[in-house]
Amino acid sequence: MLDETPDLLNQNIIIILRNRQFFADLEELNKILAPIKKACTILESKNTTLIDCFLQLVILAMEIQSLSEGSNQNFRNNCIEIFNRRWKQFDFDLYILAYFFHPKYRGMF
């Protein structure tokens, strides 16, 4: 197909490059994927504790909350919905109490 219409690919690339919203969407996607990647790396460690999971969820929540409200509301709403579903798995008073007593907690979050 590309051999038959080589400028079709070129036209699609030009359209994407001219669309600034495409790059804004990529930046927002990166804001969400970067903490998830970091969380996966941390959670693969042999020394991982429940507080590590909780901290990464809090960091991810802050990133989702910081997504711009004007650009792609559907993406932001989907992120919030998925996060809230996962948060319910960690929403136990004992976990939150352990978080507040953990040495890494300094009232930052």
Radius of gyration: 20 Å
Q: Any idea how many domains? A: 1
> Uncertain runs with pLDDT below 50, 5 residues or more?
none
**Helical fraction:** over 70%
How far do the termini sit from each other?
53 Å
Q: How does the major sheet shape up? A: none
In short:
With 109 residues, this protein is an all-alpha fold. The protein contains five helices and no strands.
Explained architecture:
- This protein has 109 residues and is mainly alpha-helical.
- The chain has one domain.
- It has five helices and no strands.
- It is elongated and about 60 Å long.
- The protein starts with 5 loop residues before the first helix and ends in an 8-residue tail after the last helix.
- The mean pLDDT is 77.
Write the layout of secondary structure elements.
Layout: H1 6-18, H2 20-43, H3 50-66, H4 73-90, H5 93-101
Helix pairs in contact: 2-3, 3-4, 3-5
Labels describing this entry:
single chain, 109 residues
